[in-house]
Amino acid sequence: MYALVEIKGKQYKVEQDAVIRVDHLDSEQGSTVEFPTVVLLRDDKTTTVGTPYVDGAVVKAEVEDHIRDRKVRVFKHKRRKNYRRTRGHRQQYSTIRVKEIAGV
Known about the structure:
By secondary structure, the protein is an all-beta fold.
């Protein structure tokens, strides 16, 4: 059984006990979060597609860790004009472990 769930505007394919990396969640480490925005639900026999979401389907997960990705450097320049700017950032992510996919 798997589900397509929308988390903070992005869609992820999740299965039971899967560990996925999502954009930073405001939940504490070790807490349980629920995502009712299930777009598609698939088990052994049937596929349920939501319009836009599947009614009654919920994905329950546990926040394992908050991590930061490697640094991304953004370099802007204009040739022959002595214009150079370097910026950068480190994107923050949360790793979650899917505990249960509760469907209809």
